[in-house]
Amino acid sequence: ELKATEAIDPTTAASDLQYEWQIYDGRFTYNLGLGPKGKTNKLVDFSFYNETDRAQVGVRAANRDWYGSWQYSNRFSITKNHPPAAPTLNTPIDGVQIDYTQDTIFRWKHNDAGQQSKFDFRWKLQSNPTLTTINRTTTEQAILIGASTFPLGTIEWQVRTYDHEGLVGPYSNSALFVSAEPSNAPT
User: Fold this and answer.
1) Residues 53 and 26: beta-carbon distance below 8 Å
2) Residue 65, C-beta contacts closer than 8 angstroms, at least 6 positions apart
3) Is the bond preceding 87 in cis, omega lying within 30 degrees of 0?
4) pLDDT, tens digit, for every residue of 50-92?
5) Helix (H/G/I), strand (E/B), else coil: 169
């Protein structure tokens, strides 16, 4: 929301003054026209404008006969939220062998300036086209999968994460591990 200080005009009541607004987005100046009489603020959706660190707002008062001089804000930034990049998988990776009779913790790094709000974890037996997907709403960058969930064989897994505003990024590259039976205890 844009807000202006009420103008003073000795010939016109404040409730009869109108305010004309403009926005500079670092490339173009957009004239937003006159607002309703007496209203010193304007609601603006900044998603339309270009991203910049040189944005500026201009405002001037007007009555029936004249326009005042433009007054300009300090420069400010217009930034937009972007989906997170694909997560970086940390563990298990590189074909490591895990005991399928034990719980397994999967860890990744959420690659975004904001906090993770949710994730989709998916896995499959490498020779099988069917994926199993688990969705969680959490900032935790890990999931614990219970013992005996995975069949024996090479398992492929991926994660995609959501940012704090709900934008979803792409799935990570696949990582592999081997789900195997525990070895016999040494004698």
Assistant:
1) yes
2) none
3) no
4) 888 999 999 999 998 899 999 999 999 988 888 999 999 999 9
5) coil
| 99 strand-pairing partners | 180
State mean pLDDT over 132-138.
97
Cα-based torsion angle of the residue sequence 45, 47, 51, 54 in order, rounded to the nearest 10 degrees: 0
- Rounded to whole angstroms, how far apart are CA atoms 80 and 112? 13
CA 146 to chain centre: 31
Contacts for 100 with CB less than 8 Å, ≥ 6 apart: 147, 148, 149, 150, 151, 152, 179, 180, 181
Q: How confident is the model at residue 186 (pLDDT cuts 50, 70, 90)?
A: low
This prediction has a pTM of 0.63
Per-residue pLDDT, averaged over 4-19, amounts to: 91
Rama region for 32: left / alpha / beta (φ>0; ψ in -120 to 50; rest): alpha
